[in-house]
């Protein structure tokens, strides 16, 4: 009765876990870990159903072998999911070797040594070896990226499998009248390890999913850059963590006469122009720089460790590069331009203040005929525009 109750609980939990993993996979079809871990718990589900149903249909030896097959397949699916989750290569050959060896040896020992300690030991060693593959996958990762809690769960699983033969001996021999107690202990151990591992897997996937959702909520899908909220949050976080002595600059870009582009060529061309400018920004910024689309045709760039002269040089490069792009839907000679306002951020200055100064410089650029770069001094007045020589070499025309 006790074992039947435990099997029923395992079946119910397996169904719940499979449904949760299926929901995560349905939302994120690129979530290979969710898929493989779902398959793992489907095997666990079949194992629970088999433990209840098979004793009424086939011999005890056949039941034990079928349950072993589901168990080791569940472990292999778990290991594949671990490899996808950690971004490491799946050790297919190693797992195939362990599976083939385990199937043959377990079948033969179950055939010739049924209800014997040898058979129980072979099963335990096979399952523990399969679980060791998952631990091996984790240990291949750099120590700073390795998930210690995950490794601990796998180690506990290995110990649980290795302790099974001792408890199995109690079942086989009925030592001290502990036959039923030992069988229940085995099932409880397996259930506790399964439940703990399942909750950890669901937590890991949910955490990653929430992180991805946050990234999507702060990303502009058209340009591939941060949106206004994401950009402001990222800059504030970056400036809070940076040393106050680090020089930084802000650039505001505005695509010239963008409404006319949409009206004359269609919104699909306008979208192509925004996407092209976004690709140009992503290709041009350095690691640590931040860029976002903060309005319909307005972009903002935070350049860390850059004074106003370096920021103006970068803005000039952007201006030249953008004006050289042609578009497959349009005539070869049609080009579009952008205007730029630059401001160097003072120490401990809030981004809103620097943004207003860069916006004033952008207004001056628009007033001066567009397709140019203007900068603003620290008190909010347009600065004198020194001659900037762009010496990075000619920008080659390219079509998008």
Characterization of this structure:
The chain has 400 residues and is of the alpha/beta class. Helices cover 64% and strands 9% of the residues. It is built from twelve helices and seven strands. The chain has helices at 2-27, 32-53, 60-86, 92-112, 117-139, 148-173, 179-217, 228-241, 258-265, 267-284, 308-323, 351-367; strands at residues 248-255, 290-293, 298-304, 325-326, 338-345, 373-376, 398-399. The strands form two sheets. A five-stranded mixed beta sheet has the order 2-3-1-5-6, sandwiched between helices. It has a two-stranded parallel ribbon with strand order 4-7. Helix 1 (2-27) packs antiparallel against helix 2 (32-53), helix 2 (32-53) packs antiparallel against helix 3 (60-86) and helix 10 crosses helix 11. The longest helix has 39 residues, at 179-217. The chain is elongated, with a radius of gyration of 31 Å.
């Amino acid at each position: 009765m006790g074992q039947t109750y435990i099997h029923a609980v395992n079946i119910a939990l397996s169904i719940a876990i499979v449904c949760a993993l299926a929901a995560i996979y349905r939302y994120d079809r690129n979530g290979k870990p969710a898929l493989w871990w779902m398959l793992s718990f489907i095997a666990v589900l079949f194992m629970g159903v088999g433990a209840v149903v098979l004793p009424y249909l086939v011999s005890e030896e056949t039941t034990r072998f079928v349950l072993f097959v589901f168990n080791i397949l569940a472990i292999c699916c778990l290991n594949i999911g671990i490899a996808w989750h950690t971004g490491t290569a799946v050790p297919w050959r190693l797992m195939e070797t362990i599976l083939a060896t385990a199937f043959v040896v377990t079948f033969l020992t179950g055939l010739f040594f049924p209800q014997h300690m040898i058979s129980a030991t072979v099963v335990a060693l096979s399952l523990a070896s399969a679980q060791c593959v998952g631990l091996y996958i984790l240990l291949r990762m750099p120590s700073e990226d390795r998930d210690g809690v995950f490794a601990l769960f796998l180690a506990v699983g290995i110990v649980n499998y290795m302790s099974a033969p001792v408890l199995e001996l109690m079942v086989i021999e009925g030592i001290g009248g502990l036959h039923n107690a030992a069988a229940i202990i085995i099932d409880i151990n397996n259930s506790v390890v399964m439940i703990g591992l399942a909750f950890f897997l669901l937590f890991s996937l949910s955490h990653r999913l929430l992180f991805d959702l946050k990234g999507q909520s702060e990303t502009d899908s058209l340009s591939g850059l941060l949106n206004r909220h994401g950009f402001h949050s990222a800059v504030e976080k970056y400036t809070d963590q940076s040393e106050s002595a680090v020089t930084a600059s802000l650039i505001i870009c505005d695509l010239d006469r963008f409404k006319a582009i949409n009206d004359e060529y269609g919104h699909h061309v306008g979208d192509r122009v925004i996407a092209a400018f976004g690709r140009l920004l992503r290709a041009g910024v350095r690691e640590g720089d931040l860029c976002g689309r903060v309005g319909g045709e307005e972009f903002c760039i935070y350049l860390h460790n850059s004074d106003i002269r370096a920021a103006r040089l970068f803005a000039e490069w952007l201006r030249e590069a953008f004006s050289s792009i042609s578009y497959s839907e349009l005539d070869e000679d049609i080009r579009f331009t952008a205007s730029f306002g630059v401001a160097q951020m003072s120490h401990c200055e809030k981004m809103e203040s620097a943004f207003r100064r860069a916006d004033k410089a952008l207004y001056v650029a628009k007033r001066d005929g567009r397709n140019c770069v203007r900068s603003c001094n620290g008190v909010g007045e347009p600065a004198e525009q020194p001659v900037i020589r762009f010496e990075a070499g000619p920008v080659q025309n390219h079509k998008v």
